[in-house]
Amino acid sequence: MSEQIATRENLRLLVEGKLAWEETKKLIRLSPKDTDRFWKYLDILQERVAWKDRILLRISDHLYIVAKKGGGRVVKCDCGQELGDYRVNWKLNCRVYVRRTREEMAEVISIEEALPNPELVEMREFYCPGCYAQLGVEVVPVGHPLLFEILPDLDTFYRDWLGRPLEDQSPGWYAEKTPELTAKWAKGG
Amino acid sequence: MGICYQGRTLKQAVADKERSFKDTGYAYGLKDLKLVTDDPAKFMRFQLRLVAACINARETAKLISANPVAMLQGELLFMLATPEGDCVAASYGLAGHIQAFPFIVKSIANLDFEEDPAIEVGDVFATNDAYYGAPHNADNYNWVPVFREGELIAWTVGLNHIVDVGGLQPGNLGTLSPNTFTDGFIYPPTKIGARFKTYKWWELHWKRRTRTEVFNILDDKMRTAGAVSLHNKILEIVEEFGVEYFRQGLKEIIERERRVLVERIKAMGVPGRYDYLHLNTVNYRGVIGTVFPRSNRNWLLHEPAELNILPDGKLHIDLEGLTSEADFHCNGYEAAVRMLSSLGCWPLFAYTVTLNTALQYMTSWNLPPGSMFNPQNPYAATVMSLAETGKQIYMFHNTLSYAYFARGFLEETFPGDPSGVGYGLAGILADGFQWGGGDMTLVTCWSSGGLPYKDGEVAYFCSPNPAPDQGETEAGEFLQPTNLTIGKKLIPNYCGHGKFRGGLGIGMCQMIVDPGQFLMIAGFGATGGMTRVTTGNCGGYPGLNDINYFAHDTNMREILAQGKPYPRDFVEIQRWIKDGTLKAGSVDLFKGASPNVSCKDGDLFAGATSGMGGWGDPLERDFALVEKDVHYGWITPDVATSVYGAVIDDKGKVKTAESQNLRKQMRDRRRERSVDAREWWKGERDQVLKKDFSETVRDMYADCLRYPKFRRKFVDMWQLPKDYVL
């Protein structure tokens, strides 16, 4: 059953947002799901990018955690721009634009009566420095720590859940490193 | 000699359940699922018989109710639980409530109900007290014990959301209440009947302590009748399968389902940490605070969550950094958190044969003592606890959507935002008749968020209720004759934009007619003047505020007398006032809940909700989708251009070459006006160091920095002095 529905072609169309809704519903109803989905997904994603670094995980529309040949795991945009160690919030390697006034927010919130209150929140937009795709939007009070949408435990995932350990697995991988970057910046580095 | 199996007391049985899970990691210590393994077909038949019995109870009992929220909008549930309180089967309806019942049973066990007032055949118990396990007082539980030869073998339960709770504000979801005494009618676990019948005196409480006494009395009868009929049906099933099978079968349902859920997470998710944040506001200053000094302030509620998908497939949710408990209406307890949040689990991973409490065996929560979800003050107000604990529904929706997206199961993503506008109302008609009511129509027809592969849908589901219905406008007008519905429609541009935009929000517009001596309306909403959740997905924009809008002293009577068109939603009202078509003496706009607002004949009241968040960069939206939006009037041509970079010609078609050029210009503009993150960080840090916040924001941080984990995150982010205080 899953061979007929969760085909590579259907998954490719799904990734592109072009799979017909009736076919998508078949995928939703598929139970159990295809156990090799992740590997098919990686193949499709890898074919879509121009670079050769191995994709370990897709974490956003444009962003992937990739394995660098010389060692390291970094976040990379499909345009080729790299955004640093995946354990550091990638937003700190973006271009940032902040909408602070009603007028600025009204450019993207199209109902005047529903605009956010600028006394309470600012609207942060994060762009890829390479292609200027909009990668993230946060509407939070000024000074709020960045939200880290996903910090995966890659070694557990590959070793214990997928049964294919990563070559560079190490107990030290699963830890957030964002404070190390901000500490460096605070020291002027 | 206790009433449970082998003479254990109820208190012992509950303690044994908890200990056996802690010691073995299996629900009820069941390493082997004997019944499931020996004859799976028989087990399935057994399980489905239980579900059918619950549905039968619902469908027959609900005919007793006169409350449209229960009868027409599906806000009710009937369920079967083990003696220890685990729910093993339920009807469709308000599914989350199965998660609260174990807390209620634990409460009556610890209160020694077995000794006094005693638990006997035919007894009827009830509660709506959050302190003892109910989420909030709008949700009322009636339950009866199922005995066989002197042994308590199960509980059957009826639950529904009532129309009015007798609080400071009319309706069932008040947003003004500083303590439990202003929440309205709350009763701790109470024995309200015997011999399968409620006591006559019980009706007096509904009659005297709530505004909609007849609705509430009939609802109470409905809950009891359903629980009793389910009780009788369960005894038939026990006879058919045998009590040994029944006793063991209920436990195996829980353990088997626990395993299913864990395996599903491991099959579709990615272990790791996922951040989520929701914000809301409470605006009491000068409203209620003049009477209650400790409430004379505004709050910005900080509701962060960290979902940890653990290596063993279980989920741990850490809410440290949550706003502290306070004298406001939205405190809640663990039962409410688990109950509401489970509504995000059903669609994402907990869809199984039956509704059951297996979730409690694979999820754990950190609810810091003293925070608003673990109040230490026993008199904390909880009348609207569901609004804030309910935000955790969308924690599951959004964080797990990222996990499934990362794993490649795009079709299983289902990001969502809290939603739902409704109102309570109370008045005195011209002849002196006092009355009250409420409406949840717009709670029952949410749109959905944009997905990684398609736009959100419109007006098609209700997150808190898997089987909702908008009900009938005519029924609402019959029961609330002062409120004439003149519009119910989707509102153009009312969504979070994105490559795949959120579903358009829906609005409702009512004209007030002949209110008599007095009418006041209290609107509720899910937002607080910011956005829905704080993030869009993958570059999409978050969903938009709920709206409660009042236009007073209008010329609507003249407009109708002249046979002219009339406005149908808040956008149209506002526009018509601006261009002079509609006259209004004053307007009140609330981007979320409203206080009690007095209304007169000819006033307009408009609510809107469910403008959901988008997925992906709006500049990547397919031109064909933009064209379709413009064609159907969902997105206006000016917004198609300004947000989506699509230039629309006179026939509604996208001018491709011009649009591509415009999109390039818009990306260039992003380049020109953005800065490197490091530069942004320095500027924001300076502001934090100078403590340059608005008063409400400063108060929020000052409170949350008392919690070590959030303090560490905040200090690390901005590299602040260790003794930084506000």
> Could you give the order of strands across the largest sheet of chain B?
2-1-5-4-3-6-7
Mean pLDDT of chain A equals 96
Number of strands of chain A: 8
**Order of strands in the sheet with most strands of chain A:** 1-2-3-4
Oligomer: heterodimer
Shape of chain A: globular
Number of domains of chain B: 4
Identify low-pLDDT runs of chain A: none
Annotation field: number of helices of chain B:
21
Secondary-structure element string of chain A: HHHHEEEEEHEEEHH
Distance between the termini of chain B: 58 Å
Tell me the greatest interface.
Answer: A-B, 86 and 97 residues
Radius of gyration of chain A: 20 Å
Structural class based on helices, strands and sheet pairing of chain A:
alpha+beta
Q: What is the straight-line distance between the termini of chain A?
A: 56 Å
If you had to describe this structure to a student in words, what would you say it looks like?
The complex is a heterodimer of chains A (189) and B (726). Chain A is an alpha+beta fold. Among the domains of chain A are: 1-48, no CATH class; 93-140, no CATH class. Chain A has helices at 2-5, 8-15, 21-29, 37-48, 102-106, 154-161, 178-186; strands at 54-58, 63-67, 73-77, 82-85, 95-99, 122-127, 134-140, 151-152. Chain A has a four-stranded antiparallel beta sheet, covered by helices on one side. The longest helix of chain A has 12 residues, at 37-48. The termini of chain A are far apart. With 726 residues, chain B is an alpha+beta fold. Chain B has four domains: 5-258, no CATH class; 417-616, no CATH class; 619-670, no CATH class; 677-718, no CATH class. In chain B, the strands form four sheets. In chain B, strands 2-1-5-4-3-6-7 form a seven-stranded antiparallel beta sheet. Chain B has a five-stranded antiparallel beta sheet with strand order 14-15-20-17-18, with helices on one face. A four-stranded mixed beta sheet of chain B has the order 8-9-10-11, with helices on both faces. In chain B, strand 4 (139-148) and strand 5 (151-161) form a beta hairpin. The longest helix of chain B has 29 residues, at 213-241. Chain B is globular. Chain B starts with 9 loop residues before the first helix and ends in an 8-residue tail after the last helix. Chains A and B meet through helix 2, helix 3, helix 4, strand 5 and strand 6 of A and helix 9, strand 8, helix 12, helix 15 and helix 18 of B.
